[in-house]
Amino acid sequence: MEPWILGLTGGIGSGKTAVLDRFASLGVHVVDADQAARWVVEPGRPALLQIAERFGSGILLTDGALDRKGLRERIFDNPADRQWLEQLLHPLIRAEIARHLALAESPYAIMASPLLIESGQYRQVNRVLVVDVPVSLQVARTVARDQVSEEQVRAILKAQASREARLQHADDVLVNDRDLSWLGAEVERLHRFYLTLRGGQV
Fold first, then answer.
1. What order do you get walking across the sheet with 4-10 strand by strand?
2. Residue 190 and residue 6: Cα distance in Å, rounded?
3. Which residues carry a binding-site annotation?
4. What is the CA angle 100-101-102, rounded to 5?
């Protein structure tokens, strides 16, 4: 039977990676949209050539890889460039994700994306799991992890879908505000439940 797809999302600092790692340790096939976004612009891939043609070879690092920070700065205030880049990359990222999901041999597979709701990717999955934490905890965790200011974190939060928007699309919510052993037990509980589902539905 073909695996059904669980979409996993959560705001910055919610602990998505820790949750994904636990699912993966239980043998669940995991595909990370952020990784797919990196794969499609690796040296030798056609998308990287097109980006260099549009923005000039200065957009590449000395080893030939994409200067992601430089590109972000270039498109930040330029809607036309950002739109061009999205039109180039989004179909490639979708195809890359689909290719990796097709390799799944577990009863269900996870597509993890921080922009699952904003990008409309939630329409491609059978069920949505939101990793949720109070905003104050998101801010504290991200400041500690990334060594950035609270203002920067709050600016990122504003750019992401609101907690309310994410929770509206959620079939399941994992509130990740305790320690890792508790989190592991919650993931195992969800995993046992997911194994009983056909096509992601009860």
1. 29-32, 108-112, 4-10, 127-132, 172-175
2. 11
3. 13-18
4. 90
Tokens of 61: 């690092």
pLDDT band at 165 (very low <50, low <70, confident <90, very high): confident
CA 142-83-6 angle, 5° bins: 55
Q: What is the CATH number of domain 1-28+106-202?
A: 3.40.50.300
Show the tokens assigned to 128: 């949505």
Could you report the per-residue pLDDT of 91-132, keeping only the tens digit for each?
A: 999 999 999 999 999 999 999 998 899 888 999 999 999 999
CA distances from 181 to 19, 106, 109, 200 (A): 11, 24, 23, 26
Q: Strand, helix or coil at 195?
A: helix
Cα–Cα distance measured from residue 41 to residue 60, given in angstroms and rounded to the nearest whole number: 11
With CA atoms as reference, report the closest residue to 22 among 112, 102, 82, 127: 112
Compute CA distances 159 → 47, 59, 118, 189, whole Å.
26, 24, 10, 32
Cα–Cα distances in angstroms (integers) from residue 15 to residues 57, 75, 103, 164, in the given order: 36, 28, 25, 18
State the alpha helices, DSSP H only, in the chain.
Answer: 16-25, 33-39, 46-55, 68-76, 79-101, 135-146, 150-159, 163-168, 180-195
CB-CB neighbours of 141 under 10 Å: 17
- Residue-range domain boundaries for the chain: 1-28+106-202
Whether the model pTM is above 0.90: no
Tokens of 85: 């880049």
Residues annotated in the binding site for ATP, as ranges?
13-18
